[in-house]
Amino acid sequence: MSDIGLMNLKLKIWRQKNMTTKGKMVDYKLDGVSPDSSFLEMIDQLNEELVTKGEDPVAFDHDCREGICGMCSLMINGMAHGPESETTTCQLHMRKYKDGDTIVIEPWRARPMPVQKDLVVDRTAFDDIMVAGGFVDINVGSAPDANGLPIGKGNAELSMDAASCIGCAACVAACPNASAMLFVSAKVSQFALLPQGEVEKDQRVLNMVTKMDELGFGNCTNAAECEASCPKGIDISNIARMNREYLAASIKAH
Amino acid sequence: MSVKYLDGKVPEGPLKDKWNKHKFDSKLVNPSNKRKFKVLIVGTGLGGGAAAATLSELGYEVESFTISDSARRAHSIAAQGGINAAKNYPNDGDSIWRLFYDTIKGGDYRSREANVYRLAEVSNNIIDQCVAQGVPFAREYGGVLSNRSFGGAQVSRTFYARGQTGQQLLLGAYSAMMKQVNKGKLKIHTRMEMLDVVIVDGVARGIICRNLITGKISRHWGDAVILASGGYGNVYYLSTNAMASNASAAWRAHKKGAYFANPCFTQIHPTCIPVHGANQSKLTLMSESLRNDGRVWVPKNKDEKRAPNDIPEEDRDYYLERIYPSFGNLVPRDVASRNAKNQCDVGKGVGNTKLAVYLDFRDAIKRDGREAIEAKYGNLFEMYERINDENPYIVPMKIYPAVHYTMGGLWVDYNLESNLKGLFVLGEANFSDHGANRLGASALMQGLADGYFVIPYTIGRHFAEGVSKVDTNHPAFDEAEKTSKEKLDKLLNIQGTKTVDYFHKKLGQVMWDNVGMARNEQGLRKAIEEIPKIREEFWKDVKVTGDFDNLNMELEKANRVADFLEIGELMARDALMRPESCGGHFRDESQTDENEAKRDDENYTHVAAWEFTGVGKEPIRNIEELKFENVKLTQRSYK
Ligand SMILES: Cc1cc2nc3c(=O)[nH]c(=O)nc-3n(C[C@H](O)[C@H](O)[C@H](O)COP(=O)(O)OP(=O)(O)OC[C@H]3O[C@@H](n4cnc5c(N)ncnc54)[C@H](O)[C@@H]3O)c2cc1C
Ligand code: FES
């Protein structure tokens, strides 16, 4: 080891100039990484070196660096958000690695979410699904008193569990079929569990699922990789709930 | 270059009737005419997102812009603690008046009475609205909403959704936006950065943007422009703000003539995870609710070498409890922050860097049991352990203050309109409601109040007065596009030797040392001298790689840091020209006998609204006098 506790690493990173150029894996050596650094600070360190040498730094998405905005992504050694459970890439720390390790870093890969540059992907498909029905149709100004509608703690908590989704798309990246079921079902569940979502619940699930299929996301084959990769621990039972909702709504629609 | 005295356009009449009367007096825009007016909104955080949904519901043609890849993400998402409202559901004596009074007092009497009263008034509507949207606030077993006391408030008026209040409120606003997109009434431009505002004859008429993926520059016209682009805390390099938070939209508007008010009013949060080393990229906030049970201390002995658990009671200094016996660990944010700094300044800091103090849960765990503590703070303890690799149930946490929020911002009148007509400013980007210090859980409230309930009324006044149509071929658009493009080209062409972060860190250090928790004349003068030098070096020696026509995050950063290098200087000037202490602005020269912030009400009960005169030129300090007709100014005391 170069310095007390500092690590020297080998990195293999996906580099791609833009949406139309083909990408490839590129090897880098990075010395002197502190175990206290976060994973993204490790890439910052690499980027500082690259810029100083006049090379294009590695583009990656990030914003809050607190595990809540859903902006960061990265397949790390084949795992979405890396090895630690219920942890986003930005909350992963280098002390999980050791001196001499090789780390492979790739973008999310799924047809509906193309790479825009290096490790940055286009996740607007999630917005498109939300536009199809991820809302309660109520305008500002017409809301009744908030306590006029008591909601049992049980459903309120389940709804909150589902609402914790940060929209990072790790579920899609981890799924062998690039299915978006965990994401969509979390949103459907959040509303289906609340009386506010009741009125539009059939239309919502039909529209969102139709949109999801239309955008080219794959089918769910119960591989459960989505749940394992989810940094917010969104439960796969949401998918079962959505399937029930979908079935009921389809029958009514016929 | 004479000083102007600004009119906040506060309506006449008793405080309680002002907003209703103002709404009634405002001319209405005929529903069928609304779609003829186009509104551009920069930012899709709580302020901008709420405004976009509401204005498009009303029938205006709305376009929103965000640098993020989706309107579901903005800095607002990170808010943990909660949102205030005067519902008084717990029946513990809260009221609109009390929320108003606490906010005015908390802001150390440097905000506008009428704005703050309105904020308290509409706070209840926000909760109703959010619940109707399906925001899953915490509830009691009986099914009603749960409240907690936050940030030293004596009533429980804070609504929350686990530790994710900001996320849930933002997702509420986002879903309202998605509904409007679905109806074809709202267009959202993601990964689009506003580079400049276009002003024609003193009226805001549009913006210039860059598509962050393709580099393409575009022109957009509107009948009004709304900036909801957040705060400028990242001027310090390290802060709790999201990495993309920036001052640029507001600063470009300032350079186009909009006044910047009270830029030196910043808030430093006492309970953050300390800096680990030179590669630190941002700071993480730990909810201040921790101070309800944690005890803050440092070793009595400067050269203490023992591990914290080996230090016996008699060698510990619980300095907050010692200095402030009645409030103890629950003193306001600025007092807690300053005292931590004082301890570290005299060498009693702990940890490797000596820039931390202990926050110890040993006694609380002994008293209530580990389970009770886990139920309250489990997720925070987990987060702490993940970052620091120490178990806070066993080893005391280490904390240190960090920059958190900026009370200053673009000057706006009661209508949230800047001095430039048709340019409105919402959320953290404006200066309006928090005076010299913001209460916990009040930023979310203000952002949503501005967007859902204030701007929908006040923007109509602007349209009712009549606006002429301007298109994007106007020479003002040519000019704005040209200067924006030239600036980016220049950044790419310098090809110097130092990275953007090098300059940002250097600026941050000057700001933290001299325009941080405690300020004095000497330090501020030093900052005013140093910052232009860094700026000069930046424009000579910065190295920006990549090109214009592709995603180029270095270029984005450079463009923002260029603005931080200007606003930092203004912050120092503002702090220098306010020799009193108030709220988060502490001048060493102005203290009470108890070392508390001492205001100078006779000379400084006003807003400083700075006018731009050119980079490196002395700006003009315009003034809005603050009149207090309903509350009596008192001196804070927490002893
Ligand atoms: C860690 C943390 C915890 C907090 N906790 C609380 C809390 O518990 N309670 C509370 O009340 N407050 C809290 N706050 C404060 C509060 O979250 C913020 O003040 C508030 O959310 C700001 O909202 P906003 O809409 O004004 O701006 P932001 O959420 O910052 O949004 C700014 C928007 O502008 C866009 N933007 C910026 N520049 C440009 C540009 N040039 N072109 C295009 N788009 C641009 C961004 O993309 C974004 O969409 C907390 C803050 C932090 C840092
Ligand atoms: S950067 Fe926000 S979740 Fe990772």
Can you tell me the CATH superfamily of the domain at 473-625 in chain B?
Fumarate reductase/succinate dehydrogenase flavoprotein-like, C-terminal domain
Biggest sheet character of chain A:
5 strands, mixed
Low-confidence stretches of chain A: none
Rg of Cα set of chain B = 24 Å
Major beta sheet summary of chain B: 5 strands, parallel
Description:
The complex is a heterodimer of chains A (254) and B (639). Chain A has 254 residues and is α+β, with helices and mostly antiparallel strands. Chain A folds into 2 domains: 7-106, Roll (Ubiquitin-like (UB roll)), CATH 3.10.20; 123-253, Alpha-helical ferredoxin (Fumarate Reductase Iron-sulfur Protein, Chain B, domain 2, Orthogonal Bundle), CATH 1.10.1060.10. In chain A, 35% of the residues lie in helices and 13% in strands. In chain A, helix 2 (124-133) packs antiparallel against helix 6 (201-214), helix 5 runs antiparallel to helix 6 and helix 5 crosses helix 8. Chain B is of the alpha+beta class. Among the domains of chain B are: 269-402, Alpha-Beta Complex (Flavocytochrome C3, Chain A, domain 1); 473-625, Fumarate reductase/succinate dehydrogenase flavoprotein-like, C-terminal domain (Methane Monooxygenase Hydroxylase, Chain G, domain 1), CATH 1.20.58.100. Chain B has helices spanning 15-25, 31-34, 46-58, 96-106, 113-133, 165-182, 248-255, 319-323, 333-345, 362-368, 370-388, 443-464, 475-494, 500-514, 521-541, 553-576, 601-604; strands at 38-42, 61-65, 83-84, 158-159, 186-189, 192-200, 203-211, 217-221, 224-227, 260-261, 266-272, 295-299, 316-317, 357-360, 397-406, 409-410, 423-425, 606-611, 620-625. The chains are: A alpha+beta (254), B alpha+beta (639). The interface between A and B is large, with 78 and 82 residues. Bound molecules: flavin-adenine dinucleotide and FE2/S2 (inorganic) cluster.
List keywords for this structure.
heterodimer, A: 254 residues, alpha+beta, 2 domains, 5-stranded mixed β-sheet, two-stranded antiparallel ribbon, B: 639 residues, Flavocytochrome C3, Chain A, domain 1, Methane Monooxygenase Hydroxylase, Chain G, domain 1, 5-stranded parallel β-sheet, 17 helices, binds flavin-adenine dinucleotide, binds FE2/S2 (inorganic) cluster
